């Protein structure tokens, strides 16, 4: 059997696709895997803010289209890029074990971000939370591949990146400072991979299930339910991070802010997970409850 995996062509996306391909080969010796490399609109317009390109989904729509029209059998995404709704014909078949979801400052620690310093990031979520922690910092726009952003880092006091991206690419450098989740709540799904296939392809679904990590999948389900309840792909800066405690309870931490950063609220919701067959429903309910609580608190 041969499988075609649709992926973006960046170094990070190729690492992710090859990681999935290697896992498939380990579980299914003799399986042939081919990468279908695609360039998305988000990659083509790398200097424009993501919000100007339509927000979430700019990195996945072309990848999903390759699945829908039969050019590929599997799609590998950074889970943080996946919209809150999956097309009816597709299904997230696996969420492999999640990497570190936290953000990092590259260049200067949080305590050094004082008046006169500039942080570069293209994320409204990161800006509003840094503004709350370092009110006098200035911001600059930054987009592009991981390598491009690191090349530009010298032009600013700091840039913000996902810890998992640096780890996966084997990038080790001085001046990397991890931001705790109570200061910088991560993007929904950050650090996780989402592996899709067509809903009418049970053979591929079964192969991908071998890669699924149940805890990572539950955490992503809770976070994604939070985003969906906020209104699909809400323009307001928001983040959520789920934790499973001793395989018994799920706690979802969240943040929601106004676009001008004048209001920012944080809270969490915790629930006992119960039997395996109920856990997806519990994860969804926790995500919905957190979104409603934050929306009410923000007014």
Describe this structure in words.
The chain is an alpha/beta fold. The protein folds into three domains: 1-96 and 192-212, D-Maltodextrin-Binding Protein, domain 2 (3-Layer(aba) Sandwich), CATH 3.40.190.10; 103-178, Periplasmic binding protein-like II (D-Maltodextrin-Binding Protein, domain 2); 214-299, Double Stranded RNA Binding Domain (2-Layer Sandwich). The chain is built from nine helices and 13 strands. The chain has a five-stranded mixed beta sheet with strand order 2-1-3-10-4, sandwiched between helices. Helix 8 (214-231) packs parallel to helix 9 (279-298).
Would you summarize the structure shown here?
The chain is of the alpha/beta class.
What labels describe this entry?
D-Maltodextrin-Binding Protein, domain 2; 9 helices; five-stranded mixed beta sheet; 299 residues; Double Stranded RNA Binding Domain; alpha/beta
């Amino acid at each position: 059997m041969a499988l075609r995996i649709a992926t973006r062509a960046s170094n990070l996306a190729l690492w992710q696709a090859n990681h999935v391909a290697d896992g498939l080969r380990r579980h299914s010796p003799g399986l042939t895997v081919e990468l279908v490399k695609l360039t998305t609109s988000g990659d083509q317009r790398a200097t424009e803010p993501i919000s100007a390109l339509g927000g979430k989904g700019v990195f996945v729509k072309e990848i999903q289209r390759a699945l829908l029209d039969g050019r590929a059998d599997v799609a590998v995404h950074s889970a943080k890029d996946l919209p809150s709704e999956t097309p009816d014909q597709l299904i997230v078949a696996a969420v492999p074990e999640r990497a570190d979801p936290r953000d990092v400052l590259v260049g200067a620690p949080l305590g050094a971000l004082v008046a006169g310093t500039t942080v570069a990031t293209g994320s409204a979520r990161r800006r509003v939370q840094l503004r709350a922690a370092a009110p006098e910092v200035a911001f600059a726009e930054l987009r592009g591949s991981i390598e491009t952003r690191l090349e530009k880092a010298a032009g600013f006091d700091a840039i913000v990146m996902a810890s998992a991206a640096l780890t996966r690419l084997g990038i080790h450098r001085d001046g990397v400072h991890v931001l705790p989740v109570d200061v910088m709540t991560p993007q929904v799904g950050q650090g996780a991979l989402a592996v899709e296939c067509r809903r009418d392809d049970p053979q591929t679904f079964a192969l991908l299930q071998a890669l699924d990590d149940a805890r990572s999948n539950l955490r992503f389900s809770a976070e994604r339910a939070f985003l969906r309840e906020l209104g699909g792909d809400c323009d307001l800066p928001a983040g959520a991070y789920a934790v499973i405690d001793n395989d018994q309870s799920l706690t979802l931490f969240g943040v929601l802010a106004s676009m001008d950063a004048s209001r920012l609220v944080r809270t969490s919701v915790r629930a006992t997970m119960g039997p395996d067959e109920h856990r997806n429903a519990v994860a969804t309910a926790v995500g919905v409850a957190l979104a409603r609580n934050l929306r009410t608190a923000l007014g």
